[in-house]
Amino acid sequence: MKKRFLVLYIVSLxxxxxxxxxxxxxxxxxxxxxxAGYLLSRSxxxxxxxxxxxxxxxWADTWPVGRLRTADGKIDLVILEGDSGEVLAFGPGxxxxxxxxxGSGHCVLAGHxxxxxxFLQHLKKNDVLLLRGLNGPVKYYSVQSFLxxxxxxxxxxxxxxxxxxxxxxxPFSAVVPGGNLRYLVFAEGIPSxxxx
Length: 196
Hints:
The chain has 196 residues and is α+β, with helices and mostly antiparallel strands. 27% of the residues lie in helices and 29% in strands. It holds the Pfam family Sortase.
């Protein structure tokens, strides 16, 4: 009888230790996300002050190049340079080869559907997005259309003027990450005076 209680005690203790380890790992990930968010915002402010990109931490392989906000201010994201998985883990990224953030051409941004770009599923036609690059004023964009395409069918018109395209994985509620479908939001630049 004592042996059975000892085994039960050891198994219970092992389960408790495993549970505590899993909880601490989950907590560590949340702490890293909060600290990274603070460092990215600080890096963006320092970049604005200096007029040149400032890395959020010394070993970072990316840097802030812009800020994306919704008109109601509920979404406020620092945009990073690049669109690799490492970059997108910290926020939306500027797709290489597209025009600079808040430039006069076609800017393309990518983000994860379950973190930074989860709000895309709630956008509606004519919603207004505010985009600011390192140099220059805030530009306003009006959401015009939405599209779902296969990832191997994506392309962007590098000759288009005053456009913003946002890309994320689709469907938003997918259990398994990745997949070959992408959700695209197309927006066109509007004069700041046209915003109500």
